[in-house]
Please model this.
Amino acid sequence: MKEFLYLRDGLRSLQPSTRLAYSLFLGFSLASYGIMLALGLTRSGVTPGSIADYYAGDGIDRYPKSMGELLELTHFHLFAMPLILFVMGHLFLMTCWPRKWKLAIVYSAFAGAALDLAAPWLVIYVTRDAALLKDLARVLLAPALVAFALVPLWEMWLRSDGKLAR
Model:
């Protein structure tokens, strides 16, 4: 069965004003992800040990996150992440990329978000070794979010020869 095509030439066939609105959304989303990444890396670091210390405490100057802190963090991210992934993923799925690649990247994004949400709980209530899941979440989510933003932007504004589209 042939994949249903929303647009004859992918996102490039959208009106310029629509492409501008999508582009602004994707640009702000990409900037937001950069800030989120910087915030996460400066708070919890990149090693499983530093991630475990951030959530479960280090016994010296860091205390374990409370149930209330985890609930607040999870509540916000459980609402925001699916919404962002849905909108960005939808635009990404409208690109002319091969269907298999698109689906793999969408699955990667949602798996990364799920691991990102689960890791703090598992670090505190199961094992500090679950901090590895936070790194795995970053590996799955980061490239997906970058692709969600850059592929549609490229397709909307650049032709296949690299020149600006009309």
DSSP finds five helices and no strands in the chain. Residues 1-6 have pLDDT under 50 and may be disordered. The two ends are 32 Å apart (CA to CA).
